[in-house]
Design a protein that fits this description.
elongated; 83 residues; alpha+beta
Length: 83
């Protein structure tokens, strides 16, 4: 193994099934792996055009929205039924 936890560094790869099962049982380490797996996608979804006090606009991550997406993902994991 290359020292990385989870999906061997392939961001497009699937999460290992045992990690998913552990996350559905509220295992904090597994939940952290799942959140790390989707971190870049959540950041992409959280990008918004932000305007500062001087009227300059730029692209940045809306931290409130990012946190809401992470919370929604965690709720979805906890309600996911593994058969």
């Amino acid at each position: 193994m290359n020292g990385k936890i989870g999906n061997s560094g392939d961001e497009r790869g699937l999460l290992p099934f045992p990690v998913i099962v552990a996350a559905t049982k509220a295992d904090p380490d597994a939940m952290k792996i799942v959140l790390q797996h989707y971190q870049s996608y959540i950041a992409y979804l959280s990008m918004q055009k932000i305007r500062d006090d001087s009227g300059n606009s730029y692209w940045g991550i809306d931290e409130d929205f990012r946190e809401r997406l992470q919370a929604k993902l965690m709720r979805a994991i906890l309600t996911f039924k593994v058969e």
